[in-house]
Design goal:
Layout: E1 3-9, H1 13-24, E2 31-37, E3 43-49, H2 52-58, E4 69-75, E5 90-91, E6 97-105, H3 108-117, H4 129-142, H5 145-155, E7 158-166, E8 173-178, E9 183-187, E10 190-194, E11 206-209, E12 215-218, E13 223-226, E14 232-233, E15 238-239, H6 255-261, H7 263-271, E16 275-276, E17 279-280, H8 289-294, E18 297-302, H9 304-321, E19 325-329, H10 330-333, E20 344-350, H11 356-367, E21 371-376, H12 382-386, E22 389-392, H13 405-425, H14 430-451, H15 454-464, E23 469-474, H16 477-493, E24 496-501, E25 518-522, H17 529-541, E26 545-551, H18 555-561, E27 564-568, H19 576-594
Parallel strand pairs: 18-19, 18-20, 20-21, 21-22, 23-24, 23-25, 25-26, 26-27
Antiparallel strand pairs: 1-4, 1-10, 2-3, 2-4, 5-6, 6-7, 7-8, 8-12, 9-10, 9-11, 11-15, 12-13, 13-14, 16-17
The structure holds 5-amino-5-deoxy-1-O-phosphono-D-mannitol.
The site of 5-amino-5-deoxy-1-O-phosphono-D-mannitol has 15 residues, from α9.
Amino acid sequence: MCGIVGYSGEQQASEILLDGLERLEYRGYDSAGIAVISPEGELQIRKTKGRLKVLKSLTDNGRVFNGSTGIGHTRWATHGEPSDVNSHPHLGDRNTIAVVHNGIIENYAEIKEYLISKGKVFSSETDTEVIAQLMEYYYEKERDLMASVYKTISNIKGAYALGILCRDYPDVLIAARKDAPLLLGYSDKGHFIASDVTALLKYTREVSYMDDGEVAFIRKDRIEVFDEFGAPVEKEHHYIDWDVSAAEKQGYPHFMFKEIMEQPEAARSTIVPRISSGRIAFENFSLSDEYLKSINKIVIVACGSSYHVGMVGKYTLERLIKMPISVSLASEFRYADPLIDENALIIAISQSGETLDTMEAIREAKRHGSKILSIVNVKGSSIVRESDEVIYTLAGPEIAVATTKAYSTQLIVLNMFGIYLAELLGTIEKEEYIQLIAELRALPDKMSAVLEDTERIKLYASRYFNQESIFYIGRNIDYALGLEGGLKLKEISYIHSESYAAGELKHGTISLIDNGTLVMAVGTYGKLLEKTISNILEVKTRGADVIALTTDSHREAMEKAADMVITVPEAPVILLPSLGIIPLQLFAYYVALMRGCDIDKPRNLAKSVTVE
Ligand code: M6R
């Protein structure tokens, strides 16, 4: 969603801010702005609706501003339409304080009313403007910057990551955080703040993560951090080992295509370090054998594609560990008064580690005494810090809004944890365990083999990219795969799609099938193939065109029923979704490409959803 970058150092700030914002574009935004303090203490601001290139041309690529301390922001509108005036940074009405903000201020209306009664004049519809106005109000009364910051944050309710400038302090950048990610970056040439590490990779890999309630004063030569009571805090420094090129397109037409192609490597990076002497082991894993043997329920909580990983996991983990697994949308779980206690393990899945709904679901589970194991891609993210244990997906930075390699590596981690737990609980035969380890090792090469057949998928996409609606059907793991396939299509091509359990079609949805309707039938699970074929025949009888996805050995059977067939190599059933998802991702990609859609930045969507 919104992005923040800030800098105080020896270089011109504006170019660094614009470069950092460019690296945050992938998160989704509708307007952008920067503020830089001039050496004379003037707050220079440019902000505009639309893409960053508009801001760049308005500022001559940042050259119109002189100054080495500044803040930048990309906004994804919540309070107030996307417009120049609602864009960040926001100023107090005396032009003394400038603020950029990620999050939502819940009590902004009452603060605004109070400030208006004190004579403050507002210019935007945003919740953020009240922060700038309130801080300026306190600062003008007391002339104490630190006290004004603390007074302001103690009066606002909600979530915030803040970057703040005060024109009386031309070399100081202030940061504050509660329930929204913000990190500090350290370098010889100056210091940084950012909402996402990708904004800083070009300048530094040395970062620390701000915690809730903390306030930081950032200058060229030092960063001082204070806790919620104003006491100094020593921050732990972390080294980010992501490659800068991993966050660049490197000749690919889109990040999404690059990330689809990177899946075998991402899978290898995720699998190999977790297999040692033929057994699965997670480094420094703190959930004890005794604890894991005591659990009687697993609940997976997640949103979007991460939820779809959980849907696959329900089938695969129940099969492995013979224990009931429930999967809950995080946004529903948190208000459902869940029936969990200290014997329930909650698995939270999140690529970004910042999804607010998932975070709140974790907090709800903790209130019930349950432990949290998270599966996350971004190190140091908020969900990691609130979990009892984390297993990282080692997919590297994922830039395209539509997830691909993060989804694949989440699936792998979830299955590896299932196999690990099955061995511990004695619910898996030794031979099957050995076979699964061998198959996990072989998985990246099988994924590469699937990626060799892109031409066939492109051809099918060229036949159907003008469809108004596409149906995905499947049973068991194939139903879960269809959910993700359908979401990919909707997200990037804007074609309506329905994903149905194949047996459920005739209970209602089959009425929507007509001549020429495209049905994508997912049938990789051999045991249920005949049932899925029956469902294919049902829709074909009603005029549908069917593309079937199955495994190599079932091609012939599928060819008798479907119009077009795509196959993936054979694998144990729990690993099939890792192969089956690839053609579905490619199909959505090519359809979107042929429709001329903005694939990496689909309309209305954001990469990490930090509001409820
Ligand atoms: O970062 P998270 O995995 O928590 O994000 C959850 C969803 O917002 C995310 O999977 C979303 O559905 C993606 N855009 C799917 O491509």
